[in-house]
Protein 1
Amino acid sequence: MHARNDGDEHDDDAPVGRVLTRREAVRLLAVSGAAVLVGCERGAGEAATDTAAAAGRATSAASNGAIASAALPGCVVRPELTVGPYFVDKQLNRSDIRIEPASGKAVEGVPLALTFNVAEVGGGKCTPLAGAIVDVWHCDAHGVYSAVNDRMSGTDSSSQKFLRGYQATDAKGVAAFTTIYPGWYRGRTVHIHFKIRTPAAAALADQRETTYEFTSQLFFDEDLSDRVFARAPYAGKGRRDTMNASDGIFRESGGQLMLAVAPSGAGYKASFDIGLDLTNSETGKAERSDFSEGMRGPPGGPGGRRGPPPGGRPPN
């Protein structure tokens, strides 16, 4: 779909605005101790000033390859992460993904208003990306995904569609969701999956060869998760077995995928900014390979070419 730049993969000083692969993001953080940053389109002078200031804050906040999310400017490249075996494209066009369509009822959990601000990077700046499909999916308060028969946990939710859905970004590049704070399951830290695809027509028609596709995951502050999980309906599940620091997929994120969460009414709210380089043909290539080799599990079971860890689920 796009022209390939063979020099990108070996360039530790990746160009401003290019979306990094998992390997590149971790390597760049290890070498420089800072994230690759670009300015939002609010006027060249203002953007340059904000970006320089934010880059300085990010450098000073960097520790062991992690970047404090508060140090990042409004438009920043992010690393891709595995799609895992639980993406099932139900094409549910809805903002409130808490609802189970079969019953019309919302799943239990602490409310979370989640907003994505999606931009296209180019020419050293970001402009809002309208008409992109943003998919979100995650487990419920008890660690269960809908639309799959998970033989590892003995849970069959293949006929259900809770906590899944997509929205198309508006003229400002915004896609908003109402969901719940995700629960946890054995072998993974707390996370939310998301996928951004464009153009919308190709994505919805599953025309993968003509669709730009970026897949990753969002993570949460440990102390906040502990506070949430002390409440019903999470509390009955007991203590988590995997934290951010011991989660291999979180470590691949380089600390760039932490959600900044704030209290809102009876729950929380969070927004996430991401800039995408639509000319980068490497984006999504690993995930396309994963799909072709069975990484995405069918409704009858999770599947996955990497298989489950001993005594646990497949990586997701």
Protein 2
Amino acid sequence: MTGEQTDAADLIDVLNVQPDGERSYVSITRDNAANRHRGVVEGSQMLAQAIVAAGRHAPGRRVVSATMMFARAANTSEPLRIQLDELSGGRNFSTLAPQVQQSGKLCASGIMLLDATAPDVIRHSVAQPDTAGPDASEPFDLAMTGRDVRFVDGAYTRDPNAPIGPPELHAWVRFRAVPEDPAMHAALLAHFTGQVSIAAALRPHAGIGQSLAHRSLSTAINAIHISFHADVRADRWMLYRHHSTFAGDGMTHSECRVFNVEGALLASFSVDAMVRRFSADRTVNDRTSL
């Protein structure tokens, strides 16, 4: 991808929400070059900011489950406010209900479970898929320096005329410099959950590609659910397996996993998204995401 770049340090600044009132956190504003033509905040950014806010609220506990639904588009020119409603707070578990607001309007809401974690009684996990490693995968420029993204078999493309393939994409992702903050590492993993799942859904369909998004196709992430199974190091290679299990009725569903370079399962997530054609009276560069 050519054009104006942003840097991972800018993303980290945006995700690094700061306290501003009781159980309230606020973000700075910084337009992402990849979204500047639309000026719309990615849903996965709001999820990631809520994870950081939860980490600030309950240090020493790990977000083990987070669900967020995106009700209204937020723009990149105004700060976001994350309000945490504590539903319960026990010795091991805490339950939070985050709400993301902009200019007093609700943009996203969800629920999170945090845990102090405990020693294993039992342990098992699914195996990492048998794919090429990061060194043998093809780099792709997603307009962000300081973040390395490589796609197995070079399978990711925005071209509607690219060869069709199965509804899945494998991406290796690594950030080059991340603060020693467990919540930030988890947030950076969560941020990429909204990047590729729609592309995986489009891949089996000839004549349809992500270059059509926000032009002739209206696409957006409606909801993300993520479960964290281990502590995350976002400054080490992570393998995202995006698998679209359904597309139809203007919606897609993907079931995805994230592994570290040693093959351990870090997280599982699912994404519900929409893929719809614009009606004739809609403008080309639509600024709404839902």
Protein 3
Amino acid sequence: MVQGFLSFLDAGVLDWAWWQIVLFTLAVTHITIASVTIYLHRCQAHRALELHPVVSHFFRFWLWLTTGMVTKEWTAVHRKHHARCETVDDPHSPRTYGIKKVLLEGAELYREAAADKAVLDKFGHGTPDDWIERNLYTGRSMSGIFLMLFIDVLLFGIVGISVFAVQMMWIPITAAGVINGIGHYLGYRNYDCPDASTNVLPWGILIGGEELHNNHHAFGSSAKLSSKWYEFDIGWMYIRILQMVGLATVRKVALAPKLTAPRPHIDAAMLQAVITHRYDLMQAYARGLRRTWREEMSRLKAAGSAGSAHLSAMVSSKSLLKDVGQDGGRITETQKLKLAHAFAASEKLRKVIEMRDELIATWERSHMSSDQLLAHLQQWCARAEASGVRALQDLALRMRRYAPVPATA
């Protein structure tokens, strides 16, 4: 009997080889990641899709079993993150707490925010509140974790404890640490949105597509997180499969801009298209800014000694211009002072940068009426087209070429 018990502890019920256990661990942690990104994130927090009750309940059960996370708590904390992003009220911003703390203590920051009843009341609306949620998934959230430990040990013996440990660490490390930390600290940006979000990798596989974090912050209500041809969102692939078999309904995806023949008049439809495609417009702005800098550098070099006095100012402005072109906020007074020397060297560069703030006001002036915003856009385009600066003229032309936005967008 003792021999049989020791044999069980050594191999468990399945008696699998080490590589089989590794594959099992990777599979179950990936299901957990899929549950977080599809159910908690895209479905519950952002309402980007609706799931069939069977699928929704599977995800709820699996998350109870493998993480102990409560739907209302996770949803509320994440919604607050978007509402207070990069401020002192952001539950897990590296800009507030520092990258080290968010990376290593992301789970603790989550639990601290989730313990605040005011956060749950304000941001946790619309999440499941049925009998099983109140009495099991929320009321006994730790029971699932202990059940998972029992299952792992039953299947694999003493090695099951290691499998369980990996399962328990997977979300705190990848989601609470990597995405909340590195996803706001290091990576590349497709969109000039008003926060520090980045795409960690263009291939969203390991963390279910959440690696494309900048894309998500730009289009928070989109069920699809990839936007470039070279980006892959495995979470979106799963959603499309569920959709094809009738188990999911996609409510919204980011609308890709379509370019048509230029509009002869700047009207309300064009204003709506500009606001909808503002991130695409800011990408075009950044390209125009870089091109203007290169053109002005070439002009000053060609001028020889006549332009040498301003050449060094233009050279030193390059790194700052990169920040101005990619940072999601208005140009600060400090930045303007640092750029003053470059402005003295290039009137074109000054126009491109200073008119950026004015363009951003088109979608940031919430106190203005639609008629006032339209008049503002008309004036901006008229000045851009008459400026003689290619970058500004190209921006005005691109705005005129945006196709009308569908009423459902």
